[in-house]
Amino acid sequence: MGRSIKEMWSKLKIRLGISNNIQIIIILIIFSITGFSTLYSHKLIDSILGIDISTAFYIKLIIFTFLILPIWALYFLFWGTLLGQRKFVTNFLKLKIRLLFNKNFKIKNNK
User: Fold this and answer.
1) How far is the first Cα of the chain from the last one, in angstroms, to the nearest whole number?
2) DSSP letter assigned to residue 103
3) What are the domain boundaries of the chain?
4) pTM above 0.85, yes or no
């Protein structure tokens, strides 16, 4: 427990590449709104496609991978842009896409 909250907060700001505390709060709000939006869409897609608890796991996995994850990214981009954090959101999504498709990715601090 040796770290203080201020120290952890400062490291989070450095890691996210942001300059002030308000941005952290906004980014956390973006993540939470994106999650709730995706959850609503996931339930809607499941009901449209007739997916329920008896549906095979591999079908649920395919739908999650090819429908829900891209919807999450679109919601993340939408809410991030709407709340004025487009630069952070695009950099975050680029990093995740590189991580997904490239084994030799490198994290660059965009300062």
Assistant:
1) 30
2) T
3) 20-101
4) no
